[in-house]
Amino acid sequence: SLTCQLHMIMIYDCPWQYLDPTKFMRTNYFPGLGWMLKRSLWQELRSKFPAEAWDHWMRTDGQHKGRDCIVPMLSRNHNIGKTGSTIDASSFEQFLANIDHNTDPDVSYGDTSYLVKQNYDKGMREKLQQAAEWRGSTP
User: Fold this and answer.
1) Are residues 4 and 30 in contact, defined by beta-carbon separation less than 8 angstroms?
2) What are the CA-CA distances from residue 109 to residues 20, 73, 94, 106, 114 (Å)?
3) Active-site residue, 111 included
4) Quick one: which of 122, 104, 105 has its CA closest to 113?
5) Which residues are CB-contacts of 119 (< 8 A; sequence separation ≥ 6)?
6) pLDDT digits (tens, 9 = 90+) for 31-75
7) Burial of 109 from C-beta contacts in 10 A (0-12 / 13-18 / 19+)
8) CA angle at residue 85 from 79 to 86, to 5 degrees?
9) pLDDT digits (tens, 9 = 90+) for 62-118
10) CB atoms closer than 10 angstroms to residue 32
11) In this structure, how many other beta carbons lie within 10 angstroms of the beta carbon of residue 31?
12) For residue 27, what are the β-bridge partners?
């Protein structure tokens, strides 16, 4: 089952021009920013939801329980805070300031049946079998 549909993923040192704003991926990592969840999951979590560091808490096994998240390939969320409870200005500049995000509100996502776990796993296996080794230079 899915934990959430997320709007933020942090991929460092990624060539942003190759991220497709119309596609999603599954992940078992809870990125933490701009997320939605089903009412049933909120009812499960709300009584124990922490006031601070909830993004880290959501990643713990006791909350995660093997559930996946659906994440856009290109984030629809943009972090604007240079300071906060878990980040300082230099860390923001190093890790978050240059992460691109989708600014087109009219993106069409089309058929998302590829995200069903069985379909997604099969598709990933096929892509990995066809993959070529990449040594860090962009095409």
Assistant:
1) yes
2) 10, 11, 31, 10, 11
3) no
4) 122
5) 113
6) 666 678 889 989 999 999 998 888 888 888 888 888 888 888 888
7) exposed
8) 70
9) 888 888 888 888 887 777 777 665 677 887 788 777 777 888 889 898 999 999 999
10) 20
11) 21
12) 69
- How far is the first Cα of the chain from the last one, in angstroms, to the nearest whole number? 36
Rounded to whole angstroms, the Cα distance separating 42 from 23 reads 26
Q: Give the Cβ contact number of residue 12 at 10 Å.
A: 9
Q: Which residue has the tokens 């230099």?
A: 90
Q: Which of 13, 20, 55, 100 is catalytic?
A: 55
DSSP string, the chain: -EEEEES----TT--GGG--TT-EEEESS---SSEE--HHHHHHHGGG--SS-HHHHHTSHHHHTT-EEEEESS-S-----SS-SS--HHHIIIIITT------TT------GGGSHHHHHHHHHHHHHH-----S---
